[in-house]
Amino acid sequence: MAMSIRTSTRRICLTLLVLGATAMPALAYCPSVPDGPETNNVENSRERALCMQGQLEYDASIQRMQSQFDSLKTSIDQLEIQRRFDRLPRPGHF
């Protein structure tokens, strides 16, 4: 049972890492379009601000998932320690 918990934990970590690595480059780039006759400064600034807001929301959700993952990992570790403690031999009565 302990091995399956550790294996599951590692798989979750690896999945989050792969998803973050593939999605991050696309979300981390908010292009700044040069002002020209077809576009204006206000529209470009608005689009860039919306892009950056989306990036911040994404980063916050990643941090939230990481926090939840860390909490679950701590709970699993505590359960594993408790199982090991419960398997210790009981001291004899004097």
Distance between the termini: 35 Å
Q: Give the overall form.
A: rod-shaped
- The class by helix and strand makeup works out as mainly alpha
**Which residues form runs of ≥5 with pLDDT under 50?**
none
Radius of gyration: 24 Å
Hey, roughly how much beta strand do the residues contain?
Answer: under 5%
Major beta-sheet overview = none
Tally of individual helices: 2
State the helicity in percent bands. Answer: over 70%
What is the count of β-strands? 0
SSE order: HH
Give the helices and strands, then pairings.
Elements: H1 2-28, H2 41-87
Helix pairs in contact: 1-2
Task: Sum up the structure in keywords.
single chain; about 90 residues; about 0% strand; rod-shaped; signal
Describe this structure in words.
By secondary structure, the chain is mainly α. The protein has a domain at 28-87. The chain is built from two helices and no strands. The radius of gyration is 24 Å and the shape is rod-shaped. It starts with a helix and ends in a 7-residue tail after the last helix.
Write a short abstract of this structure:
The chain is mainly alpha-helical.
